[in-house]
Amino acid sequence: MKTGTWGEALQSRKATKALGSLYGEKPGVVDRQRARYRGLLGQFESAFPHAEGPRLFSTPGRTEICGNHTDHNGGRVLAAAVDLDAIAVAAPTSDGRITIESEGYPRQEISIDDLAKRDSELSTAAALTRGVAARMRDTGHAVGGFCACVASDVLKGSGLSSSASYEVLVATMLNALYNGSTVRGVELALIAQYSENEYFGKPCGLMDQTTCALGGFVTIDFQDFSRPRVRGVRSDFSGSGYVPVIVDTGGSHSDLTDEYAAVKQEMKDVSRYFGGSVLRDVARDRVLAELPRLRGKVSDRAILRALHFYADDMRVERQVQALEEGRFGDFLGLVRESGRSSWTLLQNCYSNRSVDQQGVPIALALSESLLGDNGAWRVHGGGFAGTILAFAPEAKLEGYLTGMRAVFGPASCHALSIRAAGAVMLDV
User: DSSP label at 107?
Assistant: First the structure.
């Protein structure tokens, strides 16, 4: 389909339905998204005037509900895809190159014959692209050249996983353009995680990529990393009367890689004392029984982080049950419990290197004051800086947004909706 024809197709009933399923049907939402895709098609036509057969792609960001820093030690998580996403216009090429223009980044040009890791690309979008292509090929899937324009409204540093959304987007384009969309979502997530771990240089778990790839409200069990068990959560959350809100408290994640790595490592220090490789291999009762001898063998902080792991891992199952049974009050109470555990045991609400900067704890304290027992709040994502997740009742939403924006700025708060679809090539 030519880009001009795409413009016409975006006006069709089919397109309206497809966009509504991704972004919701509140007044003006579909029209805004239609304009967004139309604008990206125009950029694509200018950047790649000779490209033929462009296609449209979308991959959501994700929000973590429970299981804070449990995935990398074989635990369970509860997460959901959100309506903020990364989108692309892409077309196959015969030049053996992947060429991507993305807002705010240098143009990428990568030869599919040269996919070896480059240290000079650490922490760059090019590393993610190269790593995804390399892993696709290494796992037996077809890789070919393509040109693409990419845009994203997944907020950077928000804990909504902008990097995972981008990785999965690249994998989805290669899957659709060269593999007939036959590679399953969990495998796409594994490919994306490999890219972020090995090429980008961030020791992330698998929750982000899995949720971005699959979409919806999902619980994921990472006991077997090669085959995580994924199950959709049957919940009419849209009818709960609560709105998830991300609050950006400021601060950067760019210098926190060591903090994230320490959480994973310290939990594994405890498991290795008992002969396990991850905490899921070791029963909580064994840790408690051995506590007098464990102290001194590992740090006290490692022990506290292990106790957080066990509590949040079990809490996931309780939250899933509460959601599926429509017990939203119990669900909110468990969100608050998870938040307290992250604050006191996991200790990832601020960095010990910057004790004078505690935006996340201030946001949590203010949320408690504004919402009380009528909502919930917790650190969001990796922590140490950045964002919190709150659940505000619809009747208190505007007051909550006003109160938080007064402290953290007019652009700090983002009300979200849960997106049912994961990574897709749009059928319009």
Answer: P
